[in-house]
Amino acid sequence: MAVEPLVDIPSFAHPLFDKYMSMPTIFTFIVLFQGCFGGNGVHQTPKALLNLLHQNSMSPIFRFIFCLLIGYTATSDIETAIIVTAAFFVFLHLIRTPEERKEVPYLV
């Protein structure tokens, strides 16, 4: 049974826009960007979380898991979330400047 919209909004985007933007890999990438860079919704991050994500020898693993969970919320498909999260970190590494790569020599 289809749900009736509350307001009939006319379509103005190209018909392929929704098709491609709702693909699991693209949608997961969008959610990862939003989750990681989306406006700093929390003003002060608890110190325990900062230590876990930045001061711990396992920090890259924890950061990957953190982003993986964001991606998983987008797809509810663990395989897609793992692949797109890895691709997301590769993409971020590729667009870093040489100075930024010295600061973060690994992908995560």
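the 2nd protein, sequnce then structure:
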Amino acid sequence: MRPTIVVLIAAVLFVGCNTPSAETRAKEQLEKMKESIPDVEAAALGQKVTAEQVKRAQEALTKSSEYLGEANGKLDAVTVNSIEAFQHAHGLKGDGILNEKTEALLQDELAKK
């Protein structure tokens, strides 16, 4: 009887040692969640737009006080963040993509004054 109890206790301890801790499981879940979230900024930075489109957008964003950098036609993180802020302010999805609606609103901004 005693050897059976010892074997059972040893088996329980062995199984208990091999299961991941709550902290390990939480870290694994966090990593899975991070992987499932799309990288919006990377998508915006990778969009196919011309330097002229970006420069016009930067000029309009400057006029609307959303962009403080130089209008140089380079699509960088500051420009993308400014586009996102402009989109949010105008009721659009803030994804940083220069789509038709965003460009039209930016052109309206340039036409003011």
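Residues 2-37 form one domain. The helical segments are 2-18, 22-36, 40-45, 51-63, 77-89, 100-111.
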